[in-house]
Each structure stands twice: as C-alpha cells, then as structure tokens.
Amino acid sequence: MFTAELESLREQLADLGIETEKQHKQLLDYSNLLYKWNKHFNFVSRLDIERLPRRHLLDSLSSVSLLLPGRVLDIGSGGGLPGLVLAIARPDVSFTLLDRHSRKVRFLNQCIQTLGLANVQAVEVDLQPDDPWSQQHQQHFQTILSRAVTGVQALWTMSLPLLQPGGQLVAYTSTQSSAGSQFGETATDRESEKTLRELFAFDPFAKNPQLRQLHPEKLEERVEENSGEKLGQTPSQDVHLLLRVALKELTAG
C-alpha cells in the first residue's frame, strides 16, 4: 500500500539510514504489516495510519544519529515505533523492544521474523523497579528510547537504573514532524521544554535538601559545558538537548 509514498521519500530515508534496497524493502514490508494488524489492534490512530510514512516512520528515524553504539532499549514499543524502525536503519546496533501487552509483543515478533531482523528481540514486561527483568538488566543499555509513553519524570525514574554510566535517554515528546527541523515543533514540545527548564532548577537526587535548589540562570552554561551545544534552537531540539545533558549529569555520579 505504501510503495509509492516510500519511493517518494527515498532521499529523506537515505539521510536517516535507510540506504540499501534491503532496508527499503524491510521498511515497506513493516509498513504493510502494521497497516494490516492495525485494523485489529489500533497501534496507530485509524485516522492517522494513512499518513504512516511521513508522520510516524520519519519521526521514528529522526533520532538515528543520537544512538550510541551498543545496546538500545525501546520502552513501550507498541507497534515498533520507534525501536523496530530504527533497528532496520541500524543493523549494527542491538535493540530490545519492551511492551507489557502480549498481543503487541506477538506482533513485534511476527515483524522480526518476517523481516529477518537478527539485531532485535521483543520482550513482554511490565516495567517496575523490583521486577526480575529490571533487576537482571541494571546498567545494561547505552541508549533508552521512548515515544509518547509517559511523562519525562516517570520515564527518568524507569530508565536510570537500566542505563550504563554515560548512557542517554532519547524521549520523543511529539509525533508531529515539520519541514526543515529534525524534530517537530508543537505546543507539546514548548511545554516539555518549560518543564525541563524547571526541573533543571531543582535536583531531586541531592541527599542534602539544602543543596537541592540549583541556579537556573546557570542552565545555558551547564548545557554548553556538558554537550558543546547551545540552547535556543527549536523547542523540540532544546528538549532533546536538555535530556541528553540531564542524563549525563545524573549518571556521572
């Protein structure tokens, strides 16, 4: 169904890691599988599924350059967005797709088998701090992904025990995409940026309560020192920059 649209996106897809004919076919086969299964499981809004390539595939691939070498965890993978799509683009990276719903995991396993993806596994887990799976995977992943699953604070709480020191969290704050920008720029992004700026002015991990209040005016300086980049891009890009710096600071200790 999506042959013509994916063909029209070849140049953009190539820039995001879908370069070979094999990868292009895998992405097409995945799109058709998702469309077929979506009629029964509603992975993507039924009004939105027709816009799958531009709205969801490109958005999922937008973080491909942020992935660190090693192991990647996708929390709440659902229909495979973004983890399975990124696994097609990065066959050199090992992906674990996590979801608590057995029917979604069955779909993911069907995709893995049909597409012949050797770098992906799907796991059914209701992620909790004391569950056996989490205990067995402490500091196991270099990169953790999540797309529109939960709020930033809850996501940090779930992710930090699973991240290796120096690892990073990539949180998709929106499924909107806009031309000329790697990430969508929406009201959701602007609100997320505001929330993250407020979080940076308060350190809930400090043992001494008197030390928890930080200096928000130092935010730009801290971001540039820890990343070599500056705030003041699009709200969505600032969100991702803030998240990367936050995880670097939190895991450094």
The main β sheet shows up as: 5 strands, parallel
Strand content: 5-15%
Strand order of the largest sheet: 3-2-1-4-5
Q: Helix and strand string, N-terminal first?
A: HHHHEHEHEHEHEHHH
Stretches with pLDDT under 50, minimum 5 residues: 175-217
Summing up helix and strand content along with how strands pair, one would put the structural category as alpha/beta
Question: Would you tell me the overall average pLDDT?
Answer: 79
- Global geometry: globular
Number of helices: 11
The count of strands amounts to: 5
Task: Give the radius of gyration.
Answer: 18 Å
Distance between the termini: 50 Å
How would you describe this structure to a colleague?
The protein has 253 residues and is an alpha/beta fold. It has 11 helices and 5 strands, in the order ααααβαβαβαβαβααα. Strands 3-2-1-4-5 form a 5-stranded parallel β-sheet, sandwiched between helices. Strand 2, helix 6 (102-115) and strand 3 (120-124) form a beta-alpha-beta unit. Helix 9 (187-200) runs parallel beside helix 11 (235-252) and helix 10 crosses helix 11. The radius of gyration is 18 Å and the shape is globular. The relative contact order is 0.11.
